[in-house]
Each structure stands twice: as structure tokens, then as C-alpha cells.
Task: structure prediction
Amino acid sequence: MVNLEENNIYFYFNKDKLIQNFNEFSELGDIYYPLKTNSNEVIIRTLQPLIEEKENGYLISSISHFEILKGANVNPLKMCFINVLAEKNTVKYLYDNGVRFFTFDNLNALIEFSKYADLSKVKIAIRLSTTQVFQHKFTHLGTDLEDNDKRYEDVKKIIEIRNK
Result:
């Protein structure tokens, strides 16, 4: 057990159990540890050698997460930015600083990203499976049904560029 203090709050975690769980889950595939869960330096240092193996990585959702990992000498190529309502400047900052894996659940954000990103050198996940139709609106896409067709064509163009 390791005693950690963060913001005057103490908690314990079992380092051996953390490593055991990581190894067991990694048998199922690649693991991306979400810093949103816990970005404590001791936990990051414990997981870092394990994450460096294979295609594992870190899920980040803010510039502060990026800076924490940068401070731990984590390669930005091991980071995936979860782009949920992120400001354009945040996405661009992370791209400009070497992050090359991004998720999008908003077509407008993806289209904006494609204006400056070299799509042949990034990994993109488009999370549209949670799209819900409500009063003739695609709530996650932010468009009505007619405009959605136009946006779909934009995505097809982005994918074509990506596949070149």
C-alpha cells in the first residue's frame, strides 16, 4: 500500500494490485489510462513502464493532463485527446505539441481540426454512436437532418484525404 497526499487529502492504493489489474486487462487489448480518473504522479510513474509497452497510452482531456505527462517525460504520441466540448485553441495547442491521436464527437470540431492538421499523420476516432435524434435535430452533431447530409459529405472528404 502506498500513501498519497493530494490537496490535503490522503488516500491509499495497492501498487501490486494496480499492476496486476493492468496486466490482466492488457491481455484483452491495448489500454489507454484516463488521467481524468487519477492524475497523481505516483500512479503515473507506476503505470508508465507498462504503458510504454505495446500500443498502450493515456487518455487526456485537458492541457493540464498534457503538461503532467510532459513533466513525466511521456511521449505525446502515447496520448489520446478526448475532444468533448474542447475549445479550438486546446486542440490546436495539443496538435502543435505533438499529440497525434484525437477523438471527436462533433463534426464541426473535426472539420475545424482538418484545416490545420496533417490528416495523414494523425489517428482520429469519430464517436457518433451516441447520436440521438430529438425534434429533428442530431444533438451530438449540432445540425438538422438536411444539414447533416452536407456534413456527412465533409467527413467523407476528410476520410479520403486521410486514406491518401
Q: What stands out?
A: The chain is about 40% helix and 20% strand.
